[in-house]
Amino acid sequence: MSTSLCDDFLSGLNAVLGGAAKPVALHEPEFAGREWELVKDCLDTGWVSSVGRYVDEFEDRLAAYTGARHAVSAVNGTAALHAALLCAGVGRDDEVLLPTLTFIATANAVAYCGAIPHFADSAADNLGLDPQALAARLDEIAEPVADGWRNRQTGRRLAAVVPMHVFGHPVDMAALLDVCGRYGLPVVEDAAESLGSRIGGKHTGTFGLVGTLSFNGNKTITTGGGGAILTDDAEMGKRLKHLTTTARVKHQWEFLHDEVGYNYRMPNLNAALGCAQMERLPEMLARKRRLAAAYHAAFDGKPGFRAVREPEGCEGNYWLNAVVLTEPDRAARDACLQAAADAGYQCRPLWRLMHHLPMYESCPHGPLPVAERLEAGLINIPSSAKLGGGS
Ligand SMILES: Cc1ncc(COP(=O)(O)O)c(C=O)c1O
After folding, report:
1. Mean pLDDT over residues 300-307, rounded?
2. Record: fold of 2-29+281-388
């Protein structure tokens, strides 16, 4: 059974990628615009470090593109998420609800605040935090206290909810905000993977109190390493900029800092790369959509697989395409991964679920059956924009 599954998997990949030069990477960056010119400008002028005009320009471009009132750049997406959680009020010994199905950075950023992750299950269709599972969990464990809600089982304050838009597929934010509103919980969106993904025209990362992006080398656009925080709240925007720039108080020559801040600044060199990449984002997204459509056509007739699609009413960025085995089975999944590797296609399984990792295995969580099934059966397949054809 596994052999024919592998054959079907390979024939799906070959139908789309057969003509591509091997090996085919999972996701590659592309520098086909003004990247060289803008980075050279930094080198020519000496503005390579943590301030410069490209930092401001990149933040302006991000705000304009996403529709967020304020965008604050950061050294990477993990730092952006850490700062966002701190500014949302997450502190030591708080509990933060998040999906177990996420990249490690989401849980780590919670731990950096001294808070404890509390894992909830995911939705099978869009792979993101499931509002119904979250509601069921909160109904079971949350009790009101004078200043909000706490977990009656652990006694800890419930401080925030962190949905993550997995591989760029938007979470059902309307339902999630409804649940969080009932419990007065601020929403910090981890939109690291979803630049270009929208729900009813509104960009992901702009639904909660704050949202964060990543521009790591494997993302839809890259600044080498980098991240950003989005918010509509002017005070929050100011506070985020302050905290991520060493909490320095403006003065002509004095070095004054009014709290323990962070050096989470994005260097101008990286921001220059980001400005050039932003110019090509719409075109790269169009090619990623073409690639996704080709995968859907290739896998739709194969009963052993389900290709993950953007949810209805949403526009996904198809950062990483994924297929899920209809009968999840780790051995069959690994056989498919091996067959793909042998054929020159770089594929990968889902991240190990957070509650299966040693540092988070004792964290509280609700039932996680959907995430467990996805972990056993999901495979990411090559997704670079260039595989979607010429520009
Ligand atoms: C879901 C998620 N959150 C956070 C991050 C962290 O971003 P960075 O690698 O830029 O620190 C990433 C990706 O790398 C991610 O995929």
Report:
1. 95
2. Aspartate Aminotransferase, domain 1 (3.90.1150)
